[in-house]
Design brief:
Helices cover 42% and strands 21% of the residues. It has 211 residues and is α/β, with parallel strands linked by helices.
Length: 211
């Protein structure tokens, strides 16, 4: 069970305690720090919709440290990012692999970043747990192919790479350093120590925290 830190804030009415994620959400920061599944996707989408309702003009900062996961859950998050009015600035902290790499690349142009020691990995969807009749297996395999092509199109759109290169590079696991991810077009820049926020401080928006 993951322990969630609590932040205590002094107010005129006394102390008020927040879990750390609620505190970050108040500064328009969303943290994707688990494998991408339906539960996480619903949580991330709900936070994005909430922040849009709070202010449709201020950007949102989405920090990512995830090994990836479900393609359907990935598209739920990606589509929500494209749908809401606020720009979503994405930052890779640690690792953005598989589905998480697509979400990272889907951030607002010019506002996608990675920390110096971050890593990114792209690949084709994995097929697992297929069973049943041959016709069922064929249907499932066709859906995997369709989903892979959709993911490839998203990566091509956001990286500027040709769809042919994306197909070739995702045929096997393709790991990239921070510099390689910038060169490939998955992110726009590497955050140097001088640009990495030391803490919440007096920041008031995602622009102050998302670089």
């Amino acid at each position: 069970m993951m322990l969630i830190p609590t932040v205590v804030e002094q107010t005129t009415r006394g102390e008020r305690a927040y879990d750390i994620y609620s505190r970050l959400l108040g500064h328009r920061i969303v943290f994707l720090g688990k494998p991408v599944d339906d539960d996480l996707a619903n949580l991330i989408v709900a936070q994005l919709l909430h922040l849009e309702s709070e202010d449709g003009d201020k950007p949102v900062a989405l920090y990512i440290n995830s090994p990836g996961g479900s393609g359907d859950s990935m598209f739920a998050i990606y589509d929500a990012m494209q749908h809401i009015r606020p720009e979503v600035a994405t930052t890779c902290i640690g690792m953005a692999a598989s589905a998480a790499a697509v979400i990272l690349a889907g951030g607002a142009g010019g506002k996608r970043a990675i920390l110096p020691n971050g890593r990114v990995m792209i690949h084709q969807p994995h097929i697992g747990g297929i069973g049943g009749q041959a016709s069922d297996i064929a249907i499932h395999a066709a859906e995997i192919v369709r989903q892979r092509e959709l993911a490839n199109e998203v990566l091509a759109r956001h990286t500027g790479q040709s769809i042919e290169r994306i197909r070739a590079d995702t045929d096997r696991d393709r790991w990239m350093t921070a510099a390689e991810a910038v060169e490939y077009g998955l992110v726009d820049r590497i955050l140097s120590p001088a640009t990495v926020p030391a803490g919440l401080g007096g920041a008031t928006s995602a622009g102050d925290l998302g670089g």
